[in-house]
Fold this sequence. Notes:
The protein is α/β, with parallel strands linked by helices. The chain folds into two domains: 2-162, Sandwich (Immunoglobulin-like); 180-369, 3-Layer(aba) Sandwich (Aminopeptidase). It is built from eight helices and 16 strands. The protein has helices at 2-19, 34-38, 202-219, 241-254, 287-302, 315-318, 335-341, 344-369, and strands at residues 46-56, 63-71, 76-82, 88-94, 97-98, 105-106, 114-120, 124-130, 140-145, 155-162, 180-185, 223-226, 259-266, 276-280, 306-311, 324-331. A hairpin with a 3-residue loop joins strand 7 (114-120) and strand 8 (124-130). It is elongated and about 75 Å long. 44% of the residues are buried. Residues 1-40 have low confidence and may be disordered. Zinc ion binds at residues 186-187, 193, 202, 264.
Amino acid sequence: MRRTIFSVLCITAVFMASLCQGGLVLAATARVAPSAAQAGADGPTELTQLRWALHTDAVSGATKLRLVFDVSDAVEAAGKVVATPTPRFVVTVKGAVPGKNVKSLDMDGKIVDGVSISTVDGQNTKIVIDMPTMVEESNCRVFTLKKDLANNKPNRIVVDVEKPVPPMEFHFTPGLKDKVIVIDPGHGGSDPGAIGPTRIQEKDVNLAVALKVRELLERAGAEVIMTRRDDRDVFAPDASAVDELKARTTIANVRKADVFVSIHSNSSVSRAAGGTETFYYQKTRYDALLAQSLQAGMIEKGNLDDRGTASANFYVIKRTVMPASLVELGFVSNPDEEKRLADPQFEQRMARGIVDGLEDFFAKAAKQGGER
Ligand SMILES: [Zn+2]
């Protein structure tokens, strides 16, 4: 129900914002009922209404989200950027609580993932704006506007969030030395991932191979950043899937890694299903190339069936800003492959294949894009 009302507002807001590109976001000031301003006059100060609009700057091309809260009295609001474990802009409003019309929003992730609004200490409001990939101070601001009696407008808090522009141009050099490589062993802690016929857990296989990849890469002079080094959740035990995955992409985005490799093992209801497969999401010109290089390296060293590479809409490869791949080493659900995946010698060969693939990737990417 809330969603229906919300989408009507959304269409109105987008339409109005499109009328005023290059100017102020007029949609945010539309239709303020005078009564809204006085809603909390007799009780505690309240945030009485929330409106929002998307806006594209005609000059810079930057896309912005503007949130406008009406407030029943003048208040102070301050914001701060939180980069990890997931990127957020947190606004604190002192001495005012959210009224019944001010509810959290699910957004589509284009600029923000969502806006959650809560009461803190019974008298203040916390507004948390979840960002999809990264957030910097320069992307966010908050300010207040005083009551404007002449124009029948209440006190307001305005929050602007600009879509961060990730560095989509990469210029790679050949070789592994000094490359910043994020290795993400899939699952961990409270999340075992797939479980094989003899109870081998995917999270353990992924970690074992990832640690071997790290050792080989460090020996080659690369800087390796692990999303986890042992059996643990990256965000928190039993966290939502999105928080857990976003914590992993955030590590790569904050550290401005060159590439991101997520290591997984596959599973199927059919025990006969087997082979190695690599997924990518083509958001830079190098994602497919990275997947092909990794796949070729793993097939050469691991020698399982070649299931090839495929494009997929997976969170960790989509929400990282650098070229990224998700590899599926083999199937833990296949009894023969389960046995191999638990064998340290096979794990070492797969790790070697991944590292060979990375080396091949940087060589080819350097040729494609010109060296830095
Ligand atoms: Zn997995």
